[in-house]
Design goal:
With about 400 residues, this protein is an alpha/beta fold. Helices cover about 35% and strands about 20% of the residues.
Amino acid sequence: MKRVVVTGMALASPLGSGVNSAYSRLMQLKNCIEYEPDFEVYQNLNAKLCSKVHDFIVPQHFNRKVTRTMGRVALMSTVVTEQALEDAGLSGNEIISSENTGVSYGSSSGSLESIIDFYTMEVEKKVKGINSGSYIKMMPQTTSVNISLYFKTKGRLIPSSTACTSGSMSIGYAYETIKNGYETVMIAGGAEELHPTQIAVFDTLYATSLNNSHPELTPRPFDRDRDGLVIGEGAATLILEEYEHARKRNAKIYAEVIGFGTTTDGTHITNPNYNTMANALNRALKDAQINPEKIGYVNAHGTATHNGDIAESIATYDVFKREVPISSIKSYTGHTLGACGAIEAVLSIKMMNSGWFCPTINLENVDEDCAKLDYIMKDGREIDTDIVMSNNFAFGGINTSLIFKKV
């Protein structure tokens, strides 16, 4: 089996566009949640909160010919991937356009604006607003396909559209692809563009935070007084590379991917099952061939929903059998859906390498129904660890766990 390392990282997130700027904002211990007055036009939409990417800039060389098949979700993915390849020192390298490079990327859906164009056709019985790029913008594999086309990759393409695990699943599949010798380089990540219909979905499930007048106080993962999640957007790309190939070209290495586990609940489409969630974590540990005590920090999915927080905490304790340090980046960014697994992987690696780990902000009183874990609260914490775990869980009962190690 091949060793797999991370040699490039880039993101566009509510915390900032750029790994260092996002990390700096994380250290400020302030969330990125905002009240959106434009949502007031939607009757019966209770939640008016979101988190946006404000500093994303489309490069000038992304002209109309390049972007005609890209909605915002694909555009963010492709731009961030270009930055990640530059960070990896692989921009313009002939391996990228060869059969030795693949793409594993995902989002919950394609660009929702294009989906609405097709819906309008059915309602009004009139074709308008639809062009040759409309379907490419709409389809769930729009991120992976547009990345592949732009960088002319010719290896495997693995689209992941598994809701909130889209980003983490893509990283896991990319890792397995290189580990088994199918590719040398994989472009991996996830993305999501903000749209009010996404908020409406969770609003109808009574899962959204309604603290519209105090966005700075929500979401509150694992807190007894939480009132739901907040939807956000973003994109993140990790360049995964076979270790010997990276070493021969003297590439900088951020981390090694040593474990991946994924399971499905097989019980309910929205209510999580802590037993099968725990199985995903155990599979990642088995794949990494390490014991749970080697993990120094766990990045929680931590959405701030009642059932989700409780099930995740129980699953985590069931695996670790101790009060492992844990926190939720979603307390800063909100829930970026298909992007969250990739954004959180990037920031978990950054925190591991810096030795400083963020607290879950707004967590003041841990819900007594949550398992006893070492919830990082109020201030960040310095932890000297070589190995971290990042977990994500999605509708459909889809569970993922990734393990990263310093090299």
